Known about the structure:
- By secondary structure, this protein is α+β, with helices and mostly antiparallel strands.
- The chain has one domain (6-177): START domain (Alpha-D-Glucose-1,6-Bisphosphate, Chain A, domain 4), CATH 3.30.530.20.
- Helices cover 43% and strands 29% of the residues.
- The protein has 6 helices and 6 strands; from the N terminus they run αβαααβββαββα.
- Strands 1, 2, 3, 4, 5 and 6 form a 6-stranded antiparallel β-sheet that branches.
- Strand 2 (72-77) and strand 3 form a beta hairpin.
- Helix 2 (28-36) packs across helix 6 (139-177).
- The radius of gyration is 16 Å and the shape is globular.
Amino acid sequence: MANDKLIDKYLPEYTFSEYHEIVIDGSIETVFDMSKNFDLSKSKLIKLLFKLRGLPTNRLNLQGFIADIGFTNIEEAFPTENLIGFWVRTKIEPITTYDDFVNNAISARIKCVWNFHLEKLNSSQTKLSTETRVLGIGRVARITFGLYWFVIKPFSGIIRKKMLQIIKQDSEFLSSSG
Length: 178
């Protein structure tokens, strides 16, 4: 099943989701590389929203941010998808294995996955999308996270769109200069 997405493998059922996409003039390999560790600080708005939300802003390249916040690089399928995630019992905890995550080994209350998915449109264009899925396990977790999601979702959408724009700008610059 080569067309299956990693996000579907890890969290096929979810309570909340968000999806955004952009078309980029660049090869799928270039865009994939850019999507793995772009610089979030290129957007002053992202930095401001992170500060207002109390998120770390010391290292705003993607991999530094992932490490600082406690997310996990779960799995990648070069050059079509990179999957990031976390789960929460009382705090964000690293995802240990696929089996632990899907079988809820830590009795998580929240599971979250976030991907960058790439689709080659032609030799010089790539569609890049990002999707976030959250599963609230149990009524209390669904209600609590639902209230949080209601407040945070518009800002999360702005951040995701800005991320896609940064990756587009960086990929297109690299493609035009290389």
